[in-house]
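Hey, can you fold this?
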Amino acid sequence: MNKKLQNLALSSVAVPALLVSLAACSNGDQGDPAASQDAPAADAPQDGGGFQNSTEDAAPTEDGATGESADGAGSGGDSAEYATAIAAAEEAVGADGVAFSLDRDDDDDALFNIDVAQGTTVYEIDVTASGEARIDEAEEDDLDGDDQRELEAAQLTILEAIDAALAHQPGVLEEVDLDTENGVVVWNVDYEDRGLDDLNVDAATGEVTVDNDD
């Protein structure tokens, strides 16, 4: 009987101690609720709604966001200067005037000397840098047989030949005129830069070749 009482007394002490131990363990597992709520997720996105891309913050270049360099002007491939001068020269002669020779003139106030045929008469026209066209009466002449034949054979105008030449090789033109090379009528296009090839533009097909005669 005494032994049973002893066991009961030990049990009454052990059970409360066990309950206290279990409660302490439970509190340790929960931790600090505030700390767990404030900790950010490791892979949480930024404020922008997605993961930050380093390229989005890159500073644009001077030529824009693409970083491509702008293509500069003044390449020598623009025929506008010649088109303006040719139109002024042909208008000075009349509606049926046809330009067939152009020379750059650096000796006086004229920018170009342009020969314009009207019927069987040739007029030499001085065109200034401002676009003013003046007929040089002293330079009126009859259209010779070779020039007339070449003009009749030409399917391309002088401006179309200039466009073809500049598309093939940009540069500043010195002289453009009709000629016959190996029986073929061509527009001969000479450049001011001696380092560039002079060209022949087939007056019928527009084919561009190097003038090997120079």
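Oh, and this one too while you're at it.
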Amino acid sequence: MSSNCDVLVVGAGPVGLFLACDLTRRDLDVRVVDKNDGPTDLSKAIGIHARSLELFQDLGIIERAIERGQIENGALFYSADHFLADIRLDKLDAPYPMLLDLEQAQTERLLMERLAELGGRDERQTELVGFVQDDEGVTATLKTSSGEETCRARFMVGCDGAHSAVRHGLGSDFDREAFPGNMLLADVKLDWELPPTASWSNSAMTACSLLPPSRAAARGSSPMSPAM
């Protein structure tokens, strides 16, 4: 089986889905594929910054994003019990002066909705297993639940994360350094005396911010000793 498209997007996370939406609304024939069964059910990356919110506005999803998320107007910093700073995000010179807490699971579903509205769709259980390129484009081999197929595209874009099959296929290095230490990350229920539009952090790199009201929970992160 074979197919043709203008752009093959590999990876249906937030980046791949956003790109697919943007290209589809510009009348390009786009396929976005992902080897996983469906969107993540984890909160993962939750902070959407002011510039990204402007892009959400341009894509036509800003109202839905704000409705589903939790607005943060600032961040409070402490060293033990000593107050250090109050960083105001609502003073930014931007159309959306805030940080929006929205779980990645919700962000992906929101972008999937928008892609469907534009006439596209994400293809799951579809894995890139190889490709060759020439002066005219790329021929990709995709593994699906029905077997293998080829897809001919003018362009292919790798949005498939740290272990990118596209990057490995190109032989491109991913230079990086490991951050020393371990971090504990959890979505928890807690008593919260601070304003609902604030996040909190201290000098020990422990931090906390509220998740959207529908979750009735907060995101907490803290350094963790190797013995834990």
